[in-house]
Amino acid sequence: MSFLKKWKEKFTSKEKQEEVSGKYKEGLSKTRKSFSEKINDLVARYRKVDEEFFEDLEEILISADVGVSTVMELIEELEMEVKRRNIKDTSEVKQVISEKLVEIYQGDDDGDENISLNIQADELTVILFVGVNGVGKTTTIGKLAHQLKSEGKEVLLTAGDTFRAGAIEQLNEWGKRVGVDVIKHSEGSDPAAVIYDGIRAAKSRNVDVLLCDTAGRLQNKVNLMNELAKVKRVIEREIPNAPHEVLLVLDATTGQNALSQAKTFAQATDVSGIVLTKLDGTAKGGIVLAIRNELGIPVKLVGLGEKVTDLEPFDAHAFVYGLFADILEEE
Amino acid sequence: MAFEGLADRLQSTIQKIKGKGKVTEQDVKEMTREVRLALLEADVNFKVVKDFVKKIKERAVGQEVMESLTPGQQVIKVVKEELTALMGGDESKIAVADRPPTVIMMVGLQGAGKTTTSGKLANLLRKKYNRKPLLVAADVYRPAAIDQLETLGKQLNMPVYSEGTEANPVDIANKAVKYAKQEHLDYVLIDTAGRLHVDNDLMDELIQIKNNVNPDEIFLVVDSMTGQDAVNVAESFNEQLDVTGVVLTKLDGDTRGGAALSIKAVTDKPIKFTGMGEKLDQLEVFHPERMASRILGMGDVLSLIEKAQENVDEKRAKELEEKMRSASFTFDDFLEQMDQVKNMGPLDELMDMIPGANKMKGLKNVDFDEKQIAHVEAIIQSMTAKERQDPSLMNASRKKRIAKGSGRSVSEVNRLLKQFDEMKKMMKQMTNMQQGKKGKKNKKMKGFNFPFM
Ligand SMILES: Nc1nc2c(ncn2[C@@H]2O[C@H](COP(=O)(O)OP(=O)(O)O)[C@@H](O)[C@H]2O)c(=O)[nH]1
Ligand SMILES: Nc1nc2c(ncn2[C@@H]2O[C@H](COP(=O)(O)OP(=O)(O)O)[C@@H](O)[C@H]2O)c(=O)[nH]1
Ligand SMILES: [Mg+2]
Ligand SMILES: [Mg+2]
Fold first, then answer.
1. Which of residues 243-262 of A touch B (CB under 8 A)?
2. Per-residue pLDDT for B452 more than 60?
3. Between 20 and 30 A from A324 (CA), which of B194, B314, B366, B400?
């Protein structure tokens, strides 16, 4: 029996209805503490750590967009470790595997990292949203505005996407929906100028958090990346230590290109965190592991739908678990 | 970017086996391993890769590769042939209904580019086919989606049918078709809301629209940056709607776009167009061959390899390469070389295909004008056999004689001699590079092997 089947069996038991409901969302809170246990149980269910096992593991991770090099590295390390320790006993194997699996998302540091947003206590917080086209920047701003507002914060939005048809109206619509004001210029105007106005307005109105939308741009467009760097400089100039967060929005459906997005956007704007959207679909967004590994940028928020409430803090345990969940159900 | 890819890595694999004189099955295995990695890195779905690599292996252990003098290039060629075949032919045709209007539905995930592509298609239909399209705003869910389409309509000066966000998308579609008939508009482009393929309610809405308006085309719009999930999305949309074609967007980015292969493999529906930017004229016909090269990460180098292989006698090419290396390259060789190169097609076109070639020092001094080449031939043909073998014999009286014999001026003869000398130096440089000197600049040139250079 293959590794997958065994794993699947494990989860299709009574546990499945409760925990592997297929929805990452439910998984988010429920699977947290038992993740390591599950890996352990799982590993205990196969007898041999053979080639087939490693192949299965490789496929699971690749199909979750974790990325070939990250996966190869992991598998290699696993194989080496198993050899090095001359492991025969299954209980020892499970030790190694759970160690490594946890390592791929946590790195070497053990503790959970702080993924909360850097919101200032008594002064204006500016958050800049960046990313390629259609990933969910505007939508995330709407959702985050709602969340912050319900925490009692005074929120203001700035329509920095002056390029895409209907982008200003879209943000404006979100503003209405959530009940916060939107600073906007007309289509085609200079994005840096709108952001500047946004900051001025935020200061004079004593706003707590200013959320700045920008136009989507592919990272290989040098001019557009320069434009974005300029927007950031305007913010820096107006407020010391701002922007307090630069959030790169990534679509979970994206494959290996997301790594290139993260690299280039980080260079241009010093990205402080990632919002991983569209995790309500069947894509797993595994590429954020490579991004975390290579660039050290943490995922802070996840988008789980188009509704105003579909935004959650990132849960690394649940996320890694989610990488495997669907396959368990398919088998 | 163009050179960091399969070509590069295969080259290093080949470097390892070069001394062995023969390619073994193990070598092929190593090479196909590289192919597998390249495809996975390009986001081709792992199941699709599996099948594909199996096919490649079968062909690669066959004679055509094993007995080739350039097995690495042969492997690439085989891979590309199979890839291109898998992706199908150029198919940019759009259906025309027997009785107008022709109805086209745009479907896909959120943010894929449906609305933008609707605008682009409408633009194309009017510009290229002289049609009168109607854009239909059937996305009532995404905030300001209707504004977006209406703005595009304004930019294009084209009618947009909308009923606001309260209406039902099925009704909107129905009424839009009626409206088009009444207004004698001959294409109806229905821009639907983005939705997840697993969202049953919303997928059902699309099925209802389909059943109501009987579209002539259903285009699945897919973001070319999509990863492994592309198969699930494409398979599911296709199963539920039986799409007629695919549009791949955002190919102006730097993604390899392996999703294209996955989608084609699971749906067997033609990829018809590619989105190459945000502007409304940035829609292009899909070229399977280019896509294959892109997925492998090799720019147009592949077509160059192909051309070279079709027209250059491999064995002779090897000998010439050897000569270049040892600097015993003569005017006779040069003549022969020019012949082979000429068979490959217009020279400037060939040069264009070599990324970075225009930046190479020395290359810009070499004249690739076709007329010029005829002159060069005439000059060389006026040389004696000895002169051709040993240009150092040249003196003023010989040059005068050659100029007279070829009907060119002495200064032209001088220029050719100088160019030949430069070219020899350059060849040496380049063959040295190929031998694997690492370095920033050299790296660019790794991976090809062209005797005419
Ligand atoms: N299913 C789903 N759709 C989303 C999510 N976030 C955004 N979207 C949709 O993705 C599309 C593009 O979002 P938008 O905010 O306009 O992207 P932007 O171009 O980056 O500003 C819209 O149709 C959104 O409704 C999410 O978390 N899940
Ligand atoms: N660079 C680039 N951007 C594109 C292309 N097609 C669409 N977009 C952008 O992708 C985003 C989403 O497009 P949209 O048409 O709204 O997607 P929809 O949600 O599927 O209707 C917008 O910012 C578009 O400008 C393309 O081919 N290239
Ligand atoms: Mg936006
Ligand atoms: Mg749309």
1. 251, 253-258, 260
2. no
3. B194
Q: HSE-up of B241 (CA within 13 Å, CB side)? A: 36
What is the tens place of the pLDDT at every residue in B44-80? 999 999 998 888 888 877 766 666 656 666 777 788 7
What's chain B's average pLDDT?
80
Per domain, the residue ranges of chain B are: 6-87, 102-298, 304-445
Fold of B304-445: 434 Repressor (Amino-terminal Domain) (1.10.260)
What's chain A's Rg over C-alpha atoms?
22
Count CA atoms closer than 13 A to A126's CA, side-chain side: 26
- Record the tokens describing residue B308, joined without a space: 């070279």
Q: What pLDDT is stored for residue B306 in this prediction?
A: 54
* pLDDT score of B350 more than 60: no
Measure the CA–CA gap between A311 and A249, rounded to whole angstroms.
Answer: 13
- Structure confidence by residue, pLDDT tens digits, A276-295: 999 999 888 989 988 988 89
Q: What is the mean pLDDT of chain A?
A: 81
Point out the residue among B111, B115, B143 whose CB comes nearest to the CB of A136: B111
Q: Which of B241, B160, B246 is nearest to B202 (CA)?
A: B241
At the top level of CATH, the class of A3-112 is mainly alpha
Sign of CA dihedral A118, A119, A121, A126: positive
Cβ neighbour number for residue B63 with a 10 Å cutoff: 8
The pLDDT assigned to A68 comes to 87
Please state the rounded mean pLDDT for residues B122-146: 96
**Mean pLDDT computed over A212-240:** 95
3-state secondary structure of A128: strand
CATH T-level assignment (fold) for domain A125-315 = Rossmann fold (3.40.50)
Q: Quick: pLDDT tens for B321-347.
A: 666 666 677 888 777 767 766 665 555
- The architecture that CATH gives domain B6-87 is Up-down Bundle (1.20)
Residue found by looking up tokens 């913010």 in the block: A235
Percentage of residues of chain A with pLDDT beyond 70: 74
- Residue A211 and residue A145 in contact, taking contact as beta carbons nearer than 8 Å: yes
Strands A245-251 and A125-130: parallel
For residue B435, give the DSSP letter. T
Give the C-alpha separation, B384 to B405, whole Å.
11
Q: What is the ipTM score, two decimals? A: 0.85
Least confidently predicted of A10-14, A176-180, B160-164: A10-14
- Chain A residues with CB under 8 Å of B258 CB are 255
Residue B151 Cα, gap to closest chain A Cα (Å): 6
Mutual angle of helices B200-213 and B230-241, in 10-degree steps:
40
Contacts of B133 (CB under 8 A, 6+ apart): B121, B122, B125, B126, B158, B185, B186, B187, B188, B189
Write out the two tokens for A151: 């925490």
Instruction: Decide if B51 touches A, using CB distance below 8 A.
Output: no
Q: Can you give the pLDDT at residue A92?
A: 66
Contacts with A, B 404-423, CB within 8 Å: none
Query: Which residues belong to CATH 1.20.120.140 in chain A?
Result: 3-112
CA of B425 to nearest chain A CA: how many angstroms apart?
A: 36
> What is the C-alpha separation between A172 and A181, in angstroms, rounded?
8
CA distance B59 to chain A (A): 24
The pTM of this model reads 0.78
Interface list for A 271-290 with B (CB within 8 A): 278, 280-284, 287
Residues forming CATH 3.40.50.300 domain(s) in chain A = 125-315
B111 lines ligand 1 (CB under 6 A): yes
CATH architecture of B102-298: 3-Layer(aba) Sandwich (3.40)
**Residue A281 burial (CB < 10 Å; 0-12/13-18/19+)?**
buried
